Amino acid sequence: MTKLCVEQHRETHEIVVTFANTGCEHENTLKFVDQCDKHFGWGVVWLEAVVNPEYGKGITHKVVDYEMASRYGEPFEEHAKKYGIPGPGWGHCTRDLKDRPIRHYIKELGWEFGSYWTAIGIRADEFDRMSSRRRENRLIYPLVKAGWTKEDIKAECSKWPFDLELKGEHWGNCVWCWKKSLRKLMTLSLEDESVFDFPRKLEAKYSQIFPPKYDEEKKQKYLFREKRTVADIIELAKTVEFEPYHDLTQTLMFSEASHELRLDIGGGCGDSCEIGVDD
Q1: Helix, strand, coil share (%) of the chain residues, nearest 5
Q2: Closest of 164, 67, 60 to residue 104, by C-alpha
Q3: Are residues 239 and 130 in the same domain?
Q4: Domain membership of residue 194 as a residue range
Q5: Is 143 a domain residue?
Q6: Which candidate, 59, 55, 2, 48, places its Cα nearest to that of 21?
Q7: C-alpha span between 218 and 211 (Å, rounded)
Q8: Is the pTM of this model over 0.85?
Q9: Is residue 268 part of a domain?
Q10: Shortest CA distance to 188 belongs to which of 232, 237, 152?
């Protein structure tokens, strides 16, 4: 998407390429962004959220680079300290760790919100993931407009002298993301249980933190769907007979007696963590 935008519009538009790092992205994601930047000369601005612990103070940003980028969830944990863990019903991680730092940086450039458009890399074959508030928030989807599908993307990237080099889609971006399907999470658990070390720490330290504006009884938050914990996912992976995720996995259901375990809820390629989805 970035390559398409730069090639088509750099002569007529001012373009700023940003990458917002949460500290939980796969190392190969960071490497890939750096390789793209150096190969195509985009001048990517690497950003991380800065969370002020005082309530009423918003999210700002800091500029980092490939070498300085957080790799142990530091921005994510600072956010959890203040707002608690994300999860179903509390989907604020993309908004606060990606969208707001980018907007804060862009505002520092002198671009007021509403005076520019933000391009999102959703493909034509996943157009249903476009934000319902895209016009209000001035979001555009160049790959949807161009009709580019997953196969088109694979064909284009095959021409590049480097690759993302993931073991499969289920390893992409924030590896343990709660928006990934249960099948993906269980497969990750079987392949490398240490993937869940960081979310396990979040659960232990921040699952009962709520912002003060919530007057309701403060109950425990859960990172994953169906009020599942890291321990639940690891146990399910060890005890439930299921087909592990691979890039050709079709939507399947596992049934045992009257209990139905829905393994593919979520499950999109990017699992909807792009800017605008938390709106």
Answers
A1: 40, 10, 50
A2: 60
A3: no
A4: 182-261
A5: yes
A6: 48
A7: 10
A8: yes
A9: no
A10: 237
